[in-house]
Specification:
Strand order of the largest sheet: 1-2
Order of helices and strands: HHHHHHHHHHHHHHHHHHHHHHHHEE
Distance between the termini: 84 Å
Strand content: under 5%
Number of helices: 24
Length: 533
């Protein structure tokens, strides 16, 4: 904790670290020493001092089998440190120690204060420890502390714990009960309005992610009233503090409002947030920010014409330029796929088309097979080229289809993507299920385009049929928009009601909102096939 300067600190560390590592390996460090040293290694690693990861691994290995010696403070400090050491999250010794710490938390949670509970939840989620008894125990203790108004409980502690649930997708009864209690608490006495922006955004983001599974928006009826109210209030606060909040926090709230399908709030808030981002220097627009913004716009079916002064076009062009000037190197594939989907879903034009083209080129290069024809391509079982999952590739291919942006490369990519999904699924039915299921409708659209569009070769590709175990979850969600009702009313007004069909499901589970059947000439009434006109 002494501010000795980077150079002098490194000189001292170069002397101390080998001694510390040797003592860890020979078992000379107490549980308290191990915990404090691990905390220091995490802090120093975040400050970019060298060799801290090797020290941390040695400490984690030495601590295995000794968590019974750790008091609650040492347990929480150690879990927090492991969460900080992101480069080590997949190291077996670190993972093993983290698992032992979760058991220790379960045993000692009742004696932990709010900061300890917060540290443990945050660190475990950062480590990727899955839902289970650990989070249930954390939720039980955190709920007690919230309801008893423990004096040391802070907004940061509350935010860290609910963020942890959302991060690992923990949705047990106890976890959701705690989140509802948090919703009730922050909506009381204008407490949400008194919070810092990152706490507001973090809490409502966690609510939206925890109560609405998958990357979908859902009707407000899915949300408990306190949770829905908290998200709506966060939107109002974002509008009120538009010029003072950090832009990223505005994007988090915007995403949360969209995920909760709060359409009235969306149509007021979104243009203002996009305008704020349009005023930023180009390089200050992060890819994650644009991903959340574009997804939110698409999720609530908001028209691109709802954004005055070309603000949406400006930020789309800015993110395109950022990617073209080096941003692709560090771009996460999930962000790129989500942006492509959003551009297609929201029918964004201008720079959005160039952005989809760029993403498609990257995805196509990542998915390129050896020298096989598009219809012969089959990935080795379980293989995922670079960081592109089959789910992400499907999202990009679907965007190309709905926007009609084809050239020889992207047309081949669309064909290969569809056939890769089918081949992967046919060879290993359950392995591709989690990636495929949320996108069955997209795959159906791609198949229809492959069969009908000359630019895609009019290939008679076979359908992808979900197995019986998935049939229930693959049921279509039928909705009817205002535009659809108006279109149907207009057609009926033209005397075409007898030929009009609503919500038609075609071969391959493809849903058509509104279908106008061809007219049949009177002379065809006695014919088997009938004459169409």
């Amino acid at each position: 904790t002494l501010d000795l300067g980077a150079d002098q600190s490194q000189v001292i560390l170069d002397v101390l670290c080998p001694i510390l590592q040797a003592k860890a390996c020979t078992g000379e460090l107490s549980a308290f020493d191990l915990a404090q040293s691990l905390w220091a290694a995490a802090k120093l690693e975040s400050a970019h001092h060298r060799d801290m990861c090797s020290i941390a691994v040695a400490l984690a290995k030495a601590a295995q089998g000794r968590t019974s010696e750790f008091n609650p403070h040492s347990i929480s400090v150690s879990m927090w440190a492991l969460g900080m050491l992101e480069a080590l999250h997949d190291v077996p010794d670190v993972q093993s120690f983290a698992q032992e710490l979760t058991a220790a938390v379960i045993a000692h949670a009742d004696t932990m204060n709010p900061q300890m509970i917060s540290n443990c939840a945050w660190g475990a989620a950062r480590m990727g420890l899955p839902p289970g008894a650990f989070y249930d125990k954390v939720a039980a203790k955190a709920t007690v502390q919230l309801l008893q108004k423990t004096p040391s409980l802070t907004d940061q502690h509350v935010c860290n714990v609910v963020w942890a649930y959302a991060k690992v997708e923990a949705r047990s009864e106890g976890v959701l009960k705690h989140m509802v209690a948090v919703g009730e608490d922050v909506c009381r006495d204008r407490k949400l309005a008194a919070m810092q922006s990152h706490h507001v955004a973090g809490i409502v983001w966690s609510f939206a992610r925890a109560f609405i599974p998958d990357q979908e928006s859902a009707g407000p009826e899915m949300l408990p009233r306190p949770v829905q109210t908290a998200i709506a209030l966060s939107g109002a606060l974002a509008r009120q503090e538009l010029s003072t909040w950090e832009p990223r926090m505005l994007a988090w709230v915007m995403w949360s409002v969209a995920r909760a399908s709060l359409r009235d709030e969306s149509f007021v808030l979104f243009p203002q947030v996009v305008h704020r981002f349009a005023e930023l220097p180009r390089k200050e627009l992060g890819l994650q920010d644009f991903t959340m913004i574009s997804w939110a716009i698409a999720a609530v079916d908001m028209s691109r014409d709802s954004f005055p002064n070309r603000s949406l076009e400006i930020i789309t062009k800015n993110v395109l330029d950022n990617l073209r000037t080096g941003g692709l190197v560090s771009a996460r594939e999930s962000f790129l796929a989500c942006i492509a989907w959003a551009c297609g879903k929201a029918d964004l034009r201008g720079a959005a088309g160039q952005l989809v083209d760029l993403i498609a080129r990257v995805a196509s290069a990542a998915a390129s097979p050896p020298m096989l024809s598009p219809l012969q391509h089959q990935w080795p079982q379980g293989e995922r080229r670079s960081g592109w999952s089959q789910r992400h590739l499907t999202m990009v291919a679907w965007s190309l289809v709905v926007q009609g942006r084809y050239n020889s490369t992207t047309a081949a990519f669309v064909r290969e993507t569809y056939m890769s999904v089918r081949e992967l699924y046919q060879n290993c039915p359950m392995e591709g299920v989690s990636d495929m299921l949320p996108h069955l409708d997209q795959l159906d659209t791609i198949r229809l385009a492959l069969r009908c569009l000359p630019a895609l070769g009019r290939v008679d590709v076979p359908p992808i049929t979900p197995p019986p175990t998935m049939a229930g979850s693959a049921t279509l969600d039928i909705t009817e928009s205002v535009a659809q009702r108006q279109a149907e009313d207009a057609l009926r007004g033209l005397g075409l009601g007898s030929r009009l069909r609503s919500e038609v499901v075609l071969e391959g589970n493809l849903s058509i909102d509104c279908l106008l059947l061809p007219a049949v000439s009177p002379s065809s009434s006695s014919g088997a096939a009938g004459q169409r006109r």
